[in-house]
């Protein structure tokens, strides 16, 4: 994460955008007379939105956490893909 002021962001916009894309990170742009903002790549944004969607219901979040725990404990099965 990089924190930069508005003037620096404006003067180096291409560099700021390239950095957030290349690093899969985000930048916080601080503004003197307004709320701060965040700049991130579209891939990062889409990933966050997918995560929020998957975790927004308690039942789905619990199922995902249970599945992740089973994976970490080696409780997985390898299966062949079918054309069905």
From TrEMBL:
High-level lineage: Bacteria, Pseudomonadati, Deferribacterota, Deferribacteres, Deferribacterales
Protein name: Antitoxin
Family: Belongs to the phD/YefM antitoxin family.
Protein task: Antitoxin component of a type II toxin-antitoxin (TA) system.
NCBIfam families: phd_fam (TIGR01552)
InterPro entries cross-referenced by the UniProt entry: Antitoxin_Phd/YefM, phD/YefM_antitoxin, YefM-like_sf
């Amino acid at each position: 994460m990089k924190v930069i002021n508005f003037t620096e962001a404006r003067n180096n916009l291409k560099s700021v955008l390239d950095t957030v894309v290349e690093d899969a990170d985000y930048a916080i742009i601080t503004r003197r007379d307004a709320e701060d903002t965040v700049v991130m790549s579209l891939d990062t944004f889409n990933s966050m939105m997918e995560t929020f969607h998957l975790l927004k219901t308690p039942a789905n979040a619990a199922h995902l956490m249970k599945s992740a725990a089973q994976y970490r404990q080696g409780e997985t099965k390898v299966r062949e893909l079918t054309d069905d």
